């Protein structure tokens, strides 16, 4: 019989190491605040290298036992974890909304989304096949088997505090790896709650360890993992500069890396598109989590003949979005995560206006709601010399660029070091085939704004990183291939 936890019970303030809740070795703590109000929710452990090493020690002790469990037994534990997450949907959604700010309906959606990866990898655990290689020489049998890479360090962002860590822990555990993890300093509580439920589901002590750290101490604790040869893999979702730092600093011990990094997603609307469908797709893709999503369109290119019509349709829909705290059942956009995020959005919009953009709706903070709110915004007449054309705004701002032909659109879309998601709308089948091949990205939405699914490979190209999460490919990053050559069989 498993326990049922209220929201209050789910809020943990300590690290989880070797099956125990423990404070940081230094005894230090830092506050986690509600972005809607600025109020402190609780103070969590502010960990440093000693805590990171203690987590690694526990993961190293637990590894041989977990590696040697039967895949079907790992699958059973993951299924129990999945059931517990679903059982706690309401409390987890409230916790996500509390520390991250997204509307409650989106918080619920995130619980289901994150849980879907746990269910998916529970099934995949039992399908880790190797190969028997067709015989090359008499008396020799050659086989390739797959083994867990070892200890995985999972470092996760604040925008999806549950889904991003679930989709790293679930494949790691399914593969037989043990895990040390650190969630973002803005949102550690959901991750700690998830770990509590994993323990309740039967994940053995030491197999899953989580520490929290403030912005000041995050680098020090992660560095302890980067320098430690026992940690064999880093999986990270976050910014490209941090991804590059992790790649550089882990080179000393040549770790396997999965990096899901920044995007600067283009969204192209061709003149033959179904404009209503394109607006709906753009709304879904852009305003998910208030635009604080790596796959959110950052640059919208509209072909000249339909530009004004599309801009009008979009501005009307965007102006109607209700901005409110997560606790308001009608909220569609919540607060941004913190003051720095709002400052960046504000500076991008100001820069665009200074360079000639027209505000069709929004374009301002909403101080009547609180410090971290920004109005959903549509900007017409965007041009490539604006900051928002080359930097991810990570907020509810849609800049509309104008283009004349396919070559111009694809060149502009690809003219970025990033390559995570792209989207385009067209009803011409030949054009669809051409454009889909030309776009440089890991994910392409064709007449569709919602791409993410546990069954699909998620990940980028170019400076958006490497590795894939979800799908049948999602386990590969947690496995290594061992070749066995058996001789003298005749
Ligand atoms: C992200 O923003 O990094 C992830 C979005 C998703 O999984 O759809």
From TrEMBL:
Matches recorded under Gene3D superfamilies: Aldehyde Dehydrogenase, Chain A, domain 1, Aldehyde Dehydrogenase, Chain A, domain 2
Enzyme Commission code(s) on record: 1.2.1.79
Top-rank taxon, per record: Bacteria
MF-aspect GO terms: succinate-semialdehyde dehydrogenase (NAD+) activity; succinate-semialdehyde dehydrogenase (NADP+) activity
Record keywords, A-Z: Oxidoreductase
Active site, UniProt feature: 260
A biological process from GO: gamma-aminobutyric acid catabolic process
SUPFAM superfamilies for this protein: ALDH-like
Protein name (record): Succinate-semialdehyde dehydrogenase [NADP(+)] GabD
Organism of origin: Ralstonia wenshanensis
């Amino acid at each position: 019989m498993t326990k049922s936890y209220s929201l209050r019970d789910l809020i943990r303030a300590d690290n989880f190491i070797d099956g125990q809740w423990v404070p940081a070795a230094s005894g230090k703590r830092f506050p986690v605040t509600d972005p809607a109000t600025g109020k402190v929710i609780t103070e969590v452990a502010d960990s440093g290298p000693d805590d990171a090493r203690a987590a690694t020690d526990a993961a190293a002790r637990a590894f041989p036992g977990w590696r040697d469990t039967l895949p079907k037994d790992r699958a059973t534990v993951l299924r129990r974890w999945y059931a517990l997450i679903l059982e706690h949907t309401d409390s987890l959604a409230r916790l996500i909304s509390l520390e991250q700010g997204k509307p409650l309906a989106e918080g619920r959606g995130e619980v289901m989304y994150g849980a879907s990866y746990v269910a998916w990898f529970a099934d995949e655990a039992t399908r880790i096949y190797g190969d028997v290689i067709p015989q090359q020489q008499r008396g020799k049998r050659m086989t390739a088997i797959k083994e867990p890479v070892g200890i995985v360090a999972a470092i996760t962002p604040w925008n999806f505090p549950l889904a991003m860590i679930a989709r790293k822990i679930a494949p790691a555990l399914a593969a037989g790896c043990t895990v040390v993890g650190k969630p973002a300093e803005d949102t550690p509580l959901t991750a700690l709650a998830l770990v509590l439920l994993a323990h309740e589901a039967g994940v053995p002590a030491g197999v899953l360890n989580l520490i929290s750290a403030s912005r000041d101490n995050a680098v020090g604790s992660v560095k302890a993992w980067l320098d430690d040869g026992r940690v064999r893999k880093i999986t990270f979702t976050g910014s490209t500069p941090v991804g590059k730092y992790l790649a550089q600093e882990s080179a000393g011990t040549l770790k396997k890396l999965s990096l899901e990094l920044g995007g600067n997603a283009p969204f192209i609307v061709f003149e033959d598109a179904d404009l209503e469908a394109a607006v709906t797709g753009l709304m879904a893709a852009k305003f998910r989590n208030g635009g604080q999503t790596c796959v959110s369109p950052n640059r919208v290119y509209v072909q000249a003949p339909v530009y004004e019509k599309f801009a009008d349709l979009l501005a009307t829909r965007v102006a109607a979005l209700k901005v409110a705290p997560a606790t308001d059942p009608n909220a569609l956009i919540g607060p941004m995560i913190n003051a720095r995020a709002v400052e960046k959005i504000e500076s991008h919009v100001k820069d665009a206006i200074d360079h000639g953009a027209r505000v069709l709706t929004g374009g301002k903070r909403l101080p009547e709601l609180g410090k971290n709110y920004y109005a959903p915004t549509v900007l017409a007449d965007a041009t490539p010399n604006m900051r928002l054309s080359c930097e991810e705004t990570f907020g509810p701002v849609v800049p509309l660029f104008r283009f004349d032909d396919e070559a111009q659109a694809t060149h502009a879309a690809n003219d970025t070091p990033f390559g995570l998601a792209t989207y385009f709308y067209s009803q011409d089948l030949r054009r669809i085939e051409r454009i889909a091949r030309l776009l440089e990205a890991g994910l392409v939405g064709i007449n569709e704004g919602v791409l993410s699914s546990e069954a699909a490979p998620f990940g980028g190209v170019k400076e958006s990183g490497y590795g894939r999460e979800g799908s049948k490919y999602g386990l590969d990053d947690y496995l290594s291939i061992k070749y066995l050559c058996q001789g003298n069989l005749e």
